[in-house]
Specification:
Order of helices and strands: HHEHHEEHHH
Helix content: over 70%
Strand order of the largest sheet: 1-3-2
Strand content: 5-15%
Low-confidence stretches: none
Radius of gyration: 21 Å
Length: 149
């Protein structure tokens, strides 16, 4: 049987993982959902895009793309530049700072969660879920009961 201290250590580790997840979600909230989505997209495709391409892909107006990119440029997550071949074509590309931000968003965490599930043996996933749910439900009950008293 596991000791009280081992449970505390395990729940501390779980809490740190949840804090990481919450920090990533907070980053997206602080810059905006569409900005965060665009930043993750630029990170994932890893190449400059014409502003018009972005508008077409996201099915939003050129003006909206400009506002979103302006915000990301101001935060130094994206840089904008004109094409050397056609000065009318404006491109956007993610910066090194933008890459760091994108790596710390929900995209990374969802990827990690998927990778964790791939590591677990298939026959253990349901049991792990059931035991984790049992523990969380008990924890939630204790917190709820203590706040009512």
């Amino acid at each position: 049987m596991k000791s009280h201290e081992e449970f505390i250590e395990l729940t501390d580790r779980l809490q740190k993982l949840f804090q990481e997840r919450d920090n990533s979600n907070t980053l997206c909230v602080s810059i905006g959902e569409i900005e965060c989505a665009l930043l993750r997209f630029l990170y994932k495709i890893d190449r400059p895009l014409k502003m018009r391409e972005i508008a077409k892909m996201y099915e939003i107006s050129n003006a909206k793309v400009t506002r979103v990119i302006d915000k990301l440029v101001k935060m130094e997550f994206v840089e904008r530049y004109y094409s050397e071949d056609d000065r009318r074509s404006l491109y956007a590309r993610i910066t090194e700072e933008g890459c760091k931000m994108a790596e710390n968003t929900k995209y990374k965490l969802n990827k990690f969660q998927k990778e964790v599930l791939e590591i677990l043996p298939d026959d253990e996933i349901d049991k792990t879920y059931d035991y984790l749910k049992l523990f969380i439900d008990a924890y939630d009950k204790i917190i709820t009961d203590s706040s009512e008293n």
